[in-house]
Amino acid sequence: MTTTVYKVTGMTCGHCESAVTSEISAIGGVTSVAAVAATGEVTVVSEAPLDAAAVRAAVDEAGYELVGQG
After folding, report:
1. CA pair distance 24, 42, nearest whole angstrom
2. Beta strand extents in the chain (DSSP E only)
3. How many beta carbons lie within 10 A of that of residue 46, not counting itself?
């Protein structure tokens, strides 16, 4: 298992957290996602390291911006 923390801008509430969690959860191999709007951190646990482009695309689809890994 791999745990990665991403920094995401634009999340301000529970709905934001839910949208980001939903999109990232759809990536193959992801086992859990915890988004925290207050810190802008999204912790992702996956079976193997994720493709950064896939995570960026998922965050973009949710309407937010991936700014890097924490």
Report:
1. 9
2. 2-9, 30-36, 41-46, 65-69
3. 19
Cα Rg for the chain, rounded, in angstroms?
A: 10
What local confidence, expressed as pLDDT, does residue 46 receive? 98
Q: Which amino acid belongs to residue 46?
A: S
pLDDT averages per 10-residue partition of the chain, 70 residues: 97 97 98 98 97 96 93
pLDDT of amino acid 60? 97
Distance CA 8, CA 65 (A): 5
- 56-65 per-residue burial string, b: 16 or more CB within 10 A, e: under 16: eebbeebebe
